[in-house]
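Hey, resending since the last one bounced:
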Amino acid sequence: MKFSGFGRLAAGLFFAMFSAFFLLGAYAQQKPSGSGYHLIKTISLPPAPGGDEYYDYITVDADARRVYVSHGAEVVVLNADDYSVVGRISGLIRSHGIALDQEIGKGFVTDGDARTAADVQKVVVFDLKTLKVTGEIKTGQVDTDAIIYEPVTKHIFVFNGDSHNTTVIDPVKEAVITNIDLEGAVQFPAVDGKGMVYDNGQEKNEVFAIDAHTNTVKARWPTAPEGQPVSMAIDQKNRRLFSAGRGPQMVAMIDADNGKVLQTFPISGGVDANAFEPATGMLFVSTREGMIHIFHEDSPDKLSEVETIKSEYGARTIQIDPKTHKLFLSTADYNPAAAPTEKQPHPQPTPKPGNFRVLVFGR
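The structure tokens again:
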């Protein structure tokens, strides 16, 4: 078909308007007006051995359909679909984080109490099929806490809060390679899949960028206006870090290459975990106050608030199952906070023994 000059102009305007409407429609589909998440299941679990009502990180193995839940002196392993108890990793002092190395069929649990001596702080090794403990690796550090598997070097990185460092472990040899000094209290990490490990520095309000190839700190970036950063997730494709802190209470979107803080949003108190889902661009931030803050990554440089939904007080840790989009959190009933003292001017409520539970949110 041939067009006159005017016809060509009209056709060009038509196609421009059509393209604009198409793009707007696609954007409207990508950016959700609401998450649709709500509580679909409460899984009540018996007290942990020893009566220590303590809980920490959750790890989801989407392929094996397992959910690893830290609970006092054990890790409870749930079926991700029917929520039954698959097994337990027992005989621990106080469990914290769980990292998985599917290639060699091993799991790793950080175990220890910050109040105990450094020589009892360790990483417990277990078999992914049988869940039986097969060994332990002493870190020699204090407050052995967060843990993550780095897929390029195939090493395990353990973060020791009170020792202000990270212990690098060879998972095959089950041996410590080195300790990297981070010069401040450390919290939860993330990996970019290309050999970089990122971690929050709570004490100095910064993010560490660690080169896993050389086991050195490549950069230290301030998180201001976010303060006391503790939780982290990453969008590996767009190279964006999501760091959340407790004072000021904010979540920050950070460029993983240069550390630039791109956006910040206020959140409720006591944040402890973030979870990012690449397939939907959704970011979930959970806090001790019993809130799940939900955001959407509209573009690599734009995060927007979707909604904040109520969970339960104390449900501060969160993970997502990428196959079902379900969220897993854990909590318990709490005693009232003790009276303030000079040593502890801001005491927090403590969990009551015997009512630990996992909350499942879905759409």
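The longest helix spans residues 5-30.

Sorry for the duplicate.
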